[in-house]
Amino acid sequence: MKMYKKLVVALMLFVGSNIVLAQSGVDPEYVKVTNERAQKIVDDLKLKSSEDQLAVRNIIAEQYRSLSKIQDGRDAKIEEVKKSITDKEKQQKTIDKLKNDADKKILSLHKSYLKKLSKKLNNSQIVQVKDGMTYGVLPITVTGYNDMLPNLTQEQQKYIYDALVEAREHAMDAGSSKEKHAWFGKYKGRINNYLSKQGYDLNKESADWHKRLEEREKNKKK
């Protein structure tokens, strides 16, 4: 009986949220896409309560939609500026202001989003959500650096990890897969510069690493 009541509550919340979104003019197909995207992240959290699963899914999905609203609005205004302002200097100043205003809104949204998640999830689960929103690039990249450079000091490992954590915070708010990966690419450039200053020949280390990876693949097939 309790399970039945939970399912009824969950269904009412789901239907209700979709009705509100439909009335507010949000594209139902986009709602579906963001809900499904968020659900994949929630599934990995293994939350026991169906109410918590739905609540967290809605928080994540709403974050995707809110980010898109800010970014789409910014991009539309920038396109309008490019058409209406011919003076290049004035045009660029106006565009820069639009980008800065959008960045401020996104930063505020980012903080609000994490606050909402913290009411439903612990720190470890929030990290899972962040990785879910950024395709797990952080743990994959950390593993890659440690495998390529097995003699990294604790200080060097910390630098790499901290840099990638910062990249992930930005990537979470990016509007596309390409933009998310670009943030990690930017910070990986910083990491590589740091490691070069630490005395690593990354071209050689990378070549040697790929040889080791090839050897592992060959050994697996034997």
Output the keywords:
globular, 9 helices, disordered N terminus, 0% strand, 222 residues, mainly alpha
What would the principal axes of the Cα set say about the shape?
Answer: globular
Order of helices and strands: HHHHHHHHH
Model regions low in confidence, pLDDT < 50 over at least 5 residues:
1-17, 19-24
**Strand percentage:** under 5%
Average pLDDT metric: 90
Q: What share of the residues lie within helices?
A: over 70%
Biggest sheet overview: none
If you had to describe this structure to a student in words, what would you say it looks like?
With 222 residues, the protein is mainly α. The chain has 9 helices and no strands. It has helices at residues 2-23, 28-45, 50-84, 88-118, 123-133, 137-148, 154-171, 177-197, 202-221. The radius of gyration is 22 Å and the shape is globular. InterPro entries: DUF3826 (IPR024284). It comes from Flavobacterium plantiphilum.
Quick rundown:
Helix content is 85%, strand content 0%. The protein has 222 residues and is mostly helical.
What is the topological layout?
Elements: H1 2-23, H2 28-45, H3 50-84, H4 88-118, H5 123-133, H6 137-148, H7 154-171, H8 177-197, H9 202-221
Helix pairs in contact: 1-3, 2-3, 2-5, 3-4, 6-7, 7-8
